[in-house]
Amino acid sequence: GESVGLHLPTLSVQEGDNSIINCAYSNSASDYFIWYKQESGKGPQFIIDIRSNMDKRQGQRVTVLLNKTVKHLSLQIAATQPGDSAVYFCAERLRGSARQLTFGSGTQLTVLP
Amino acid sequence: DTGVSQDPRHKITKRGQNVTFRCDPISEHNRLYWYRQTLGQGPEFLTYFQNEAQLEKSRLLSDRFSAERPKGSFSTLEIQRTEQGDSAMYLCASSQGVAYGYTFGSGTRLTVV
User: Are A69 and A6 in contact (CB under 8 A)?
Assistant: First the structure.
């Protein structure tokens, strides 16, 4: 029979508030991390990245924090807007020749009017 | 448009049929990746090309799947004898060398009926 999609963690915020989305990554040897935004029916869209030798990086309205001690990544979105509603994924890049990305479970962000 | 292009956007096929998808990466990118994404999940790595050489394949890539990148530019992903479990979004991404940044296409949504 048809499989049921897994229930994504969800976060609902009021328009104008700040959002914090968390992610636990798996491999302590990963050297690079990216946050992607994915809207329904579309491919992942790059938001911000951070290398493993950094703890924090800021972009326009977004900040990524990396805590390598506990293998935790967070994405902060300032002044959240309706257009920010989407699923957000963190991805880690594994060391090795392929250097492919491994994605975490996503978080559905809903911005309330 | 200088992004990653994928064709077709949607494909509905009967179980047992063969399907082929195409990916045109960003022209100067020498690395090309195929991912599969099912409902409620993050993308999962399938295979990777550096120029025309297929250098790594995931265990997810069964013998019914084959990918090519004949001239080191566009790539094709073929699925033979499709099964209902193959229904998913197939995503292509490209990057340049070991530089930071992976650009995804919009994906091909496959439905096997």
Answer: no
Judged by CB atoms closer than 8 Å, whether chains meet at A44 and B98 is answered as no
Q: CB–CB of B48/B31 below 8 Å? A: yes
Q: How far is CA B77 from CA A110, B37, B48, B92, in A?
A: 34, 15, 11, 10
Report how far apart, in Å, the C-alpha atoms of A43 and of each of A61, A96, B68 are: 21, 25, 21
Is the pLDDT higher at A39 or at A2? A39
Longest dimension (CA), chain A: 46
Cβ pair B66, B46 in contact under 8 A: no
**Candidate from B33, B42, B109 with C-beta closest to A89:** B42
- Any CB–CB contact under 8 A between B34 and chain A? no
For residue B107, the SS3 value is: coil
Q: Which residues on chain B are in Cβ contact (under 8 Å) with A36?
A: 104
CB contact under 8 A, B43 and A42: no
- Asked whether A63 and A82 are in contact (CB, 8 A), the reply is no
Tell me the pLDDT tens digit for each residue of B8-59. 999 999 999 999 999 999 998 999 999 999 988 999 999 999 999 999 899 8
Contacts 24+ apart (CB under 8 A), A63-71: A64/A33, A64/A35, A66/A33, A68/A28, A70/A24, A71/A24, A71/A25, A71/A26, A71/A28
φ/ψ of residue A83, rounded to 5: -70, -10
